[in-house]
User: Which sequence fits this backbone?
């Protein structure tokens, strides 16, 4: 936004490059065919929402991200969150777990239990979900390169609790392509990683029908520097890549598309975000119907978790982040999300304190019960500006997708590092604009308070966690049947070498108490490792 | 982002990528004969990892490298980092220009000392 010396806004250009006029009217949407482009909520093309009644029927699911330290500590936090009225869990794992390393791995030192829960064997998962009614909640496992392992661990826990797999609900994040672009916890090269996703989808469609085997994350791509248009375009291209992998195995689109989930980011311009989601729903429905020939309307719905983006929060004047979080939650509700998670106000510093996590949860609860967000579906629908902007966003997303597809597709773009380089350059340019004041951030480059000190309670880190975990791992290794572990790992290796689905073999391996690290080493031996493309 | 800013400021940058071990960083620093080592840590392990890095530099006889630490560093840890020998700490929210100026100033001072 350019500004004259006066308070007047001279010109408004959204992050996605769309210029905005000061007033919109009927002439801006006169080409718009209501039935075809907007329609009824719960009906194709789902512009207004994926359910006919949306929040009238049930408010959005509230799922704050949590997990730290030992499985026991995480278990306590889970129970506390459920007691506070949270309706689902969103599990954070520590970096070693995300990279497939055991707690006794020398490379894992210093990191065990820091940014999430440390998992080595099935026993840890058993402990994390002890006395938690798995059949009544849905659980999101925020794990990617080793998602297949964590999924079978979760299924084994369900089995041990006597819960049948058709009752197990949840999501594994399991979006490896965005890890190469933004989040960074890859292990294996691109192609075998996509194969593992295919194995999971195939396995879940046959055995765990209520589970979403992957959640495509525009979120992290946006956090890495993407515009809202790129966020949607790249997420769709990634989802298409996974769909193609599964179709090649002979599954029909309607057998699994209804279980595809998305994870999107919210920060920045309110109207641009709302239009982004409305355009995204319409576009995705069209892709699944037209390109992939789906018949079942459920397959065509863009089901999402959309939450308050960490990228919008600031280290400076951290309490302002509570306010930002509330606006992000509002945007998310106006956009028709299925699940909401908010970054807590202290998240620019630390793992959220109990107090901060509770404020985030209460923010969403206040919206549900006090502000009328449940009253009517898509309340902004029909506004000249919103409908016009929805059209513009849709056009831009399509253009962005076509650019990547015409130059060899998403897998190639990621393998060669094109997307990664584009994102880091954009992030750099954005940061320069913030530092120069061209993009305004309150407390950072406007209304700055020099005397402020960050008065935030930091999440205490317990260095004992690593020692405790190492000891426990040693005990399990001594206790388990070594012959059985060896046999299970050999079977897994055999399956990974061929085109067999690895999932049943993975399940046997975790049930023998093979460690995450041991399983990852088997995969590394066959698949190799990904190397970051060189060059800035 | 910092790598791009330094490059823009005319410096040669070797970006090692994510999740490098201290050993790998030391190896790259030796092989490439760098002047400055920058390490960014978001997980909270900055104190112990920085100590490891400084010990490693000492052991290899290259303690003269300028060491910068960035990332998610609480205010209260900055002194501790400086005490273990880190030259500059730039937490999230630092100005890119401040990092560039810091490096330039340090090198000017060093060169003046050396009488270059």
Assistant:
């Amino acid at each position: 936004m350019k500004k004259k010396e006066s308070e007047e806004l001279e010109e408004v250009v959204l992050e996605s490059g769309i210029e905005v006029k000061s007033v919109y009217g009927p002439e801006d949407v006169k080409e718009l065919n209501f039935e075809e482009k907007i329609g009824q909520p719960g009906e194709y093309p789902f512009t207004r929402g994926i359910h006919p009644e949306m929040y009238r029927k049930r408010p959005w699911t509230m799922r704050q991200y949590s997990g730290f330290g030992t499985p026991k500590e995480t278990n306590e936090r889970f129970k506390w969150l459920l007691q506070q009225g949270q309706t689902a869990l969103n599990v954070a794992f520590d970096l070693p777990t995300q990279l497939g390393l055991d707690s006794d791995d020398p490379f894992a030192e210093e990191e065990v239990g820091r940014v999430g829960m440390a998992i080595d064997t099935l026993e840890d998962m058993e402990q994390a979900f002890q006395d938690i009614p798995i059949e009544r909640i849905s659980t999101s496992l925020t794990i990617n390169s080793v998602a297949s392992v964590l999924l079978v661990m979760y299924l084994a826990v369900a089995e041990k609790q006597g819960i049948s797999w058709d009752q197990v609900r949840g999501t594994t994040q399991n979006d490896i392509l965005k890890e190469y672009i933004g989040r960074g916890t890859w292990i294996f090269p691109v192609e075998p990683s996509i194969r593992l996703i295919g194995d999971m989808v195939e396995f879940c469609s046959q055995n765990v029908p209520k589970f979403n085997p992957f959640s495509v994350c525009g979120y992290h791509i946006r956090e890495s520097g993407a515009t809202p248009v790129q966020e949607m375009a790249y997420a769709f291209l990634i989802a298409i890549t996974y769909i193609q992998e599964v179709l090649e195995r002979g599954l029909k689109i309607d057998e699994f598309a209804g279980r595809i989930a998305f994870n999107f980011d919210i920060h920045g311009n309110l109207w641009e975000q709302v239009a982004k989601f409305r355009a995204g729903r319409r576009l995705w429905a069209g892709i699944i119907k037209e390109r992939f020939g789906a018949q079942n309307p459920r397959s065509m719905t863009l089901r999402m978790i959309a939450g308050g983006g960490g990228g919008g929060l600031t280290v400076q004047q951290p309490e302002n982040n509570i306010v930002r979080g509330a606006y992000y939650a509002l945007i998310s509700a106006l956009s028709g999300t299925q699940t909401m998670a908010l970054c807590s106000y202290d998240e620019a510093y630390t793992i959220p304190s109990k107090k901060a996590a509770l404020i985030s949860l209460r923010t969403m609860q206040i919206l549900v019960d006090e502000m009328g967000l449940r009253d009517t579906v898509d309340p902004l629908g029909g506004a000249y500006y919103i409908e016009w902007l929805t059209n513009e966003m849709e056009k831009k997303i399509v253009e962005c997708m076509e650019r990547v597809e015409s130059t060899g597709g998403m897998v190639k773009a990621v393998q060669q590092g094109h997307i990664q380089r584009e994102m880091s350059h954009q992030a750099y340019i954005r940061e320069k604009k913030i530092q120069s004041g061209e993009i305004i951030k309150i407390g950072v480059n406007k209304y700055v308070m020099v005397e402020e000190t960050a008065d935030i309670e930091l999440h205490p880190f317990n260095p004992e966690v690593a020692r405790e975990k190492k000891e426990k791992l040693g005990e399990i290794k001594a206790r388990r049947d070594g012959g059985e572990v060896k046999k299970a790992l050999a079977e897994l290796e055999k399956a990974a070498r061929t085109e067999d689905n690895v999932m049943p073999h993975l399940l046997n391996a975790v049930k023998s108490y093979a460690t995450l690290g041991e399983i990852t080493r088997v995969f590394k031996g066959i698949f190799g490792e990904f190397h970051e493309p060189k060059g800035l | 982002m910092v790598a791009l800013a330094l490059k823009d400021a005319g410096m040669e940058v070797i970006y090692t990528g994510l999740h490098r071990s201290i050993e790998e960083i030391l190896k790259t620093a030796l092989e490439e004969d760098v002047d400055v080592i920058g390490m960014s840590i978001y997980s909270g392990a900055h104190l112990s990892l920085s100590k490891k890095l400084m010990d490693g530099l000492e052991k290899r006889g290259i303690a003269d490298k300028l060491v910068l630490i960035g990332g998610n560093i609480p205010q209260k840890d900055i002194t501790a980092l400086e005490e273990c020998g880190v030259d500059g700490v730039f937490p999230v929210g630092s100005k890119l220009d401040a990092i560039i100026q810091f490096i330039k100033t340090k090198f000017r001072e060093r060169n003046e000392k050396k009488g270059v």
Q: What stands out?
A: Chain A touches chain B at residues 95, 99, 107, 110-111, 114-115, 184-185, 314-316, 348-350, 424-425, 427-428, 431-432, 435, 444, 453-454, 458-459, 461, 532, 536 (CB under 8 Å). The longest strand of chain A covers residues 261-266. The CA atoms of residues 194 and 418 of chain A lie 19 Å apart.
